[in-house]
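in:
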């Protein structure tokens, strides 16, 4: 005798969607509703996908509301994740970037108002900003020195190949 075909009810569909929305793994959802994971994915794929997507959208909406309400932690999180800010902590090397890109397309700067509620945090942020600014300036100066050395070595090798006197380093 064969097993009865799996036919999900509207209540079962809603339950699977709710479980998927809160992040319950598919194997556990299958155990909870009494079927195999393969059957779950076969018959309730839409509920699994939309439950997760709707939960993500709800969290994003809540985060957006917190950002607009002035929550500094939410603003920082938004800048780092949704704002595509890929900077690293001060003193760390940032991930490799394409130097052909314009600097404005490689980093984001978020300037938040000083709400005078947390003066220590404001002072700390200003200190971090100044430290980061100094590191960026130092890196630019180092790159310029390296470029000058490269130009000098190239000019020296070109003049040597042409039989002309070598230029002096500036």
């Amino acid at each position: 005798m064969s097993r009865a075909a799996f036919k999900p009810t509207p209540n079962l569909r809603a339950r699977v969607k709710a479980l998927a929305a809160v992040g319950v793994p598919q194997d556990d959802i299958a155990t909870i509703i009494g079927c195999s994971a393969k059957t779950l994915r076969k018959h309730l794929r839409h509920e699994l996908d939309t439950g997760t997507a709707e939960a993500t959208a709800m969290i994003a909406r809540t985060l957006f509301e917190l950002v607009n309400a002035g929550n500094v932690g939410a603003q920082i999180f938004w800048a780092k994740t949704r704002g595509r800010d890929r900077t690293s902590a001060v003193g760390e090397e940032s991930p490799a970037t394409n130097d052909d890109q314009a600097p404005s397309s490689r980093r984001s700067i978020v300037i938040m108002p000083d709400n005078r509620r947390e003066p220590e945090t404001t002072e700390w942020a200003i200190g971090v900003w100044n430290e980061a600014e100094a590191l960026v300036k130092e890196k630019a100066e180092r790159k310029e020195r390296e470029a000058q050395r490269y130009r000098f070595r190239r000019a020296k090798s070109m003049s040597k190949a042409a039989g002309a006197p070598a230029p002096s380093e500036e």
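note: Residues 88-98, 101-106 have pLDDT under 50 and may be disordered.
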